[in-house]
Amino acid sequence: MITGAHTILYSSDADADRAFLRDVLGFPHVDAGGGWLIFAAPPSEIAVHPTEGAPRHELTLMCDDVDRTVTELTAKGVEFTSPVQDQGWGRLTSLRLPGGGELGLYEPLHPTAHS
Predict the structure, then answer these.
(1) pLDDT at 115 exceeding the cut of 80
(2) 61-83 pLDDT, tens per residue?
(3) Residue 37: which H helix or E strand, with range?
(4) Would you give the DSSP letter of residue 24?
């Protein structure tokens, strides 16, 4: 039986990104040994989108109010790489991880599977 999903973020500075998830986003975590942190993620969904290019995967965090969340995270020093844009299905932006990667952040305007 499937009991959950394990997401992996590859990073050029894994320690900085782990500190970001722990200290800035406040995700609960366990130490899997030797300081290797594994984080509890918020409830999630899986969507499958068609593509004409090579298949790829992305991680986008969801929030109830993207403007408020951007304001709160900006106050904690988070850099956003794009303005909030209304996509019809949700209001979307992206934030920079300390290791150089990006995560999407959006406020869904559609029914969610986890609510």
Answers:
(1) no
(2) 999 999 999 999 999 999 999 99
(3) strand 37-39
(4) I
